[in-house]
Design a protein that fits this description.
By secondary structure, the protein is an alpha/beta fold. The protein has three domains: 165 residues, Adenylosuccinate Synthetase, Chain A, domain 1 (3-Layer(aba) Sandwich), CATH 3.40.440; 84 residues, Adenylosuccinate Synthetase, subunit A, domain 2, CATH 1.10.300.10; 202 residues, Adenylosuccinate Synthetase, Chain A, domain 3. It has 16 helices and 20 strands. A ten-stranded mixed sheet has the order 9-7-5-2-10-1-11-16-19-20, sandwiched between helices. A hairpin with a 2-residue loop joins strand 3 and strand 4. The radius of gyration is 22 Å and the shape is globular. It binds inosinic acid (IMP). Inosinic acid binds next to helix 5.
C-alpha cells in the first residue's frame, strides 16, 4: 500500500504511543508532516524530547513541535500543554542560531506555564527513584498540572497582565511554603519572556476549529505513551496528562471523534520504560529496575565502557556499532539482566530528556491489547531492526494469574508474564521495502501479534530514516 492510499479521505491523523513512551513518535510525526498542513501538540511539556537537525547538527528539542522545520506548515503548542518559558525561548534562540525562522509557530493562550517553583518541587519530591518516588523527569510537569487542576495555575494569557500575574503567583505561593518565592522577581522575568513569545500567542482552540472547517490536514503529535497516561496508565507511576488519543485531541481543542486515523506506535518485539513502576516483561526484573533507577550512574558511556564496546565521541554525541558482536553476545546471554543491557545498547535506549538508561523487556501483547481498546486498532511497529542477531524473540501473552493487563500497579507487580517464543532472524532488514521480503520469522511474530490483539499493523519501521518505512497491505 502507498502513503496516498493510507491517507485517502483522511483529514486528521494522531501519532500516539501504545506503550510507556519513547517508541519513535518523532520519526512518524516527521513522516506525516509532509502530508499535513498543521502540526499540533496537545499534552505534556519539556518532559518529551525529539531530535531536530539544524545546521547539520543534531539537537534534541523538548517543546517546539517536530514539524517546526516545515516553514509552510503551522506548528501549534496546544491548550493542553505545559510550557516552561525559559526552555521555549532557549529553543527559539537555538532555531535562530541555526538560521531557522519560526513564523509558523502558534502558542495557545490557554496553555499553563511551568514556573521555577514547580521545577524545584518536582526535583525534590518526584525525581529521585531512590527515595521511592516515581522518577519523574524533574521538569516541573506534575506540580504544574496539579496547579491547573486545583485552579491556581498560571496560563499563557496571564503573562500579559502584570497585576493578575502578581495576584495569581501570590495565591500559588501559599502552596509552596517550603520555597522562598520572590513574586516581583518572577513577574519581571516572565514579562521579558512574554514580550518574546507575544507574536505567537493565539486562541488556538478557535484556530483549530477554523482549520477543521476549511479542510486543512491536521497532525496531532502525542507525547509519552498510553501506559503513562494519568487516566489509563499504571497510576501513580504515570505522567500528569492524558497521553491517549482522547487527551491529545482535548489538548488541541478537538474531540477524539474527529481523528480519522489514530496511529498507535508500538516498539516491537521489545519495549522500554523510563522511571519507576511495574513492567512485567522487564529483562532482569527488579534487578534491572534498581540498576536503571541509579540514572546517570549507568548512562550510555558507562555501559559501553563496562562491556568493552568501542565508541567515538563526535560533536558531543556518541557513535558505536549497534550490531557489535559484543552487543549481540549480551543480547543472547542466558542471564536476562545482561540480555536487557544488550537490547538497550543495540537500540540506544537512553532517555532523550534525562540521559537515563531505559528499562527493557519483551513486548507485552496483553498490555497492547488493553492499549488499543483506547487508542484504536491501527498500529505502527518500530525498532524490529534492533533485534537482528537475537537467537529468539519472545512476546508476552498474559500472566500466570490473569489473561489481562491491569492498571493496578500493585497487582501488576505480582504478575509473572507468559510468553510465545519465535526464532530470531539474522538478516539485515534496514533496506527492505516490501513487507513480503521481511524474514519469515519476523513476519510470523507480527501475524501472531495481529491475531492475539486484534490490532492491524499499518506500518513497519526498519530504521530511523524516513525511507526505512514499509506500509503494509491490509
Ligand atoms: P513526568 O512526566 O516528568 O512527571 O514523569 C512521570 C513519569 O513519566 C516518569 O516515570 C517519567 O520517566 C515518565 N516520562 C515522562 N516523559 C516521558 C517520555 O517522554 N518518555 C518516557 N517516559 C516519560
Amino acid at each position: 500500500m502507498t502513503l496516498e492510499q493510507l491517507t485517502k479521505d483522511v483529514q486528521t491523523i494522531a501519532i500516539i504511543c501504545n506503550q510507556w513512551g519513547d517508541s519513535g513518535k518523532g520519526k512518524f510525526v516527521d513522516y506525516f508532516a509532509e502530508w499535513a498542513d498543521v502540526i499540533v501538540r496537545g499534552t505534556g511539556g519539556n518532559n518529551a524530547g525529539h531530535t531536530i537537525v539544524t545546521n547539520c547538527k543534531k539537537r534534541i528539542f523538548h517543546l517546539v513541535p517536530s514539524g517546526i522545520l516545515h516553514k509552510d506548515k503551522i506548528n501549534i503548542l496546544g491548550n493542553g500543554t505545559v510550557i516552561d518559558l525559559e526552555v521555549l525561548v532557549g529553543e527559539l534562540d537555538e532555531l535562530t542560531r541555526g538560521g531557522i525562522t519560526y513564523n509558523n509557530l502558534m502558542i495557545s493562550e490557554d496553555a499553563h506555564v511551568i514556573l521555577p517553583y514547580h521545577v524545584k518541587r518536582d526535583i525534590k519530591r518526584n525525581a529521585s527513584q531512590k527515595k521511592g518516588a516515581i522518577g519523574s523527569t524533574g521538569r516541573g510537569i506534575g506540580p504544574c498540572y496539579a496547579d491547573k487542576i486545583a485552579r491556581r495555575g498560571i496560563m499563557i494569557r496571564d503573562l500579559f497582565n502584570k497585576d493578575i500575574l502578581a495576584k495569581k503567583i501570590g495565591k500559588a505561593k501559599e502552596y509552596y511554603q517550603e520555597q522562598d518565592i520572590d513574586i516581583e522577581y518572577i513577574v519581571e522575568e516572565l514579562g521579558l519572556y512574554a514580550e518574546r513569545i507575544k507574536p505567537f500567542v493565539r486562541d488556538t482552540i478557535s484556530e483549530m476549529h477554523e482549520f477543521i472547517r476549511h479542510g486543512k490536514k491536521i497532525l496531532l503529535e502525542g507525547a509519552q505513551g498510553l501506559l503513562l497516561s494519568i487516566e489509563f496508565g499504571t497510576y501513580p507511576y504515570v505522567t500528569s496528562s492524558d497521553s491517549s488519543v482522547n487527551g491529545v485531541a482535548a489538548g488541541v481543542g478537538l474531540s477524539a471523534k474527529v481523528v480519522d486515523l489514530p496511529l498507535g506506535i508500538v516498539k516491537f518485539p521489545y519495549m522500554t520504560r523510563v522511571g519507576a513502576g511495574p513492567f512485567p516483561t522487564e529483562f532482569g526484573g527488579a534487578k534491572s529496575e534498581g540498576y536503571c533507577a541509579s540514572g546517570l550512574e549507568h548512562d550510555i558511556k558507562y555501559e559501553l565502557k563496562n562491556y568493552r564496546i568501542s565508541f567515538e565521541e563526535k560533536n558531543g554525541s556518541i557513535e558505536y556499532n549497534y550490531h557489535d558482536p559484543k552487543i549481540i553476545e549480551l543480547m543472547n546471554s542466558n542471564k536476562p539482566f545482561l540480555q536487557g543491557i544488550g537490547i538497550r545498547l543495540a537500540g540506544e535506549e537512553y532517555g532523550a530528556t534525562t540521559g537515563r538508561p531505559r528499562r527493557t523487556g519483551w513486548t507485552d501483547l496483553a498490555a497492547l491489547k488493553y492499549a488499543i481498546g483506547i487508542n484504536g486498532p491501527n498500529i505502527i511497529l518500530t525498532k524490529a531492526d534492533v533485534v537482528q542477531g537475537a537467537n529468539e524473540i519472545k512476546l508476552g501473552t498474559g500472566y500466570n494469574n490473569s489473561e489481562n493487563f491491569t492498571r493496578d500497579s500493585e497487582r501488576l507487580r505480582s504478575y509473572k508474564p507468559e510468553y510465545q517464543q519465535f526464532p530470531g532472524f539474522k538478516e539485515d532488514i534496514s533496506q527492505i521495502k516490501d513487507y513480503k521480503d521481511l524474514p519469515d520469522n519476523l513476519r510470523g511474530s507480527i501475524n501472531f501479534l495481529e491475531r492475539y490483539t486484534g490490532a492491524g499493523v499499518r506500518i513497519i519501521s526498519t530504521g530511523p530514516d524516513r525511507n526505512q518505512t514499509i506500509i503494509k497491505d491490509l
